[in-house]
Amino acid sequence: MVKIFFLLNLFLFTSFSNAQLIETKDPKALCSNGEQATFTFFEGNTNNWLMYIQGGGVAANEDQYRSRNNGLKSPAVSNERGKTYMVEDFINNNYNVIYIPYCSNDIHQGTHVNNIDGKKVYFHGRYIIEDIFNQYDEKFKKADKLIFAGYSAGSLALGLNVDLIKKYENPYIIADSFWLDAESLNVRLGWNDGPWPKIVKFLYNDRVEHCKDSHWANCFSSRPLFERNNLNNVFFIWNIGDPYMKGNLDKVKQSINEDSIFYNAGFSINAEERKLKGNIEWGHVMTATDLYYKDFEGTSLQKLIWNWINGSGKTIYINN
Predict the structure, then answer these.
(1) Which domains are assigned to the chain?
(2) What is the pLDDT of residues 102-111, one digit of tens each?
(3) By the 8 A CB rule, do 101 and 38 touch?
(4) Which residues have C-beta within 8 Å of that of residue 196, sequence separation ≥ 6?
(5) Contact at 8 Å (CB) between 226 and 234?
(6) Neighbours of 85 (CB within 10 A)
(7) What is the H or E stretch that residue 119 is in?
(8) pTM of the prediction?
(9) How do beta strands 172-176 and 112-116 pair?
(10) 126 forms bridges with which residues in the sheet?
(11) Distance of CA 116 to the CA centre of its chain
(12) What one-character DSSP code corresponds to residue 150?
């Protein structure tokens, strides 16, 4: 057992020490502080690929931007930012992994500039995502398995950049801890007054084509969005107690069940009752935390995801 543990840790150390920190090429692919964005590439020895998008909230106004950590405004300077539980797991399974750090504060979708305290602040998340897709387009086209995943704001990025994902044949999508079930979506569609016009201008100004003429919530990761774009291989994670879940709880649970049946995949627990924290209370973010491996009545999120990718075994755990 000690030998196996040592070899596993040696493998992980080697994988991360050999990781490449790569700079984006598009001069518009900038972090909020104006520096060129970077990302991490972990080379595997198969033709399977995972793109994993980091989350970390959002700056919906000037004050929120000022209060955010400088690490979320600046490019990554080492591959340490790529060390998350699911990323390590996929490296162990010989996937090529692209880890996209979050440095644009705009849910990875902006193409505009805000002026804050007399300085240009770049909300250029879309340019960053597009640059990375462009760099690996030929690899993605030829992939045996192609998986796009993200947590929290990174999960929303999967919907906001769905036009890039749908170009490829039969991609897989893992949306961790921001999934708009029917009830949570309907609640947000009513958010039009009060602070929302200012938020939309600050955050969603100059939206990409597929989001231009729609309410912003219709561009978030959800079953209606992915159905409209003919994307059916979706595994969502959406736990009761997640602070971003909205609306009538019974209706939320009903739509979660309906979505899991539709996709034959999904994970949802009552994390609040179980007092299970992810990044924040309750159950928010699992793939980037040790909840990824936690046992739930003989299964785990890790096992469910691999069963889903490999097409065999249990792929749903709903106990909310």
Answers:
(1) 2-319 (3.40.50)
(2) 999 999 999 9
(3) yes
(4) none
(5) yes
(6) 17
(7) strand 119-123
(8) 0.94
(9) unpaired
(10) none
(11) 27
(12) E
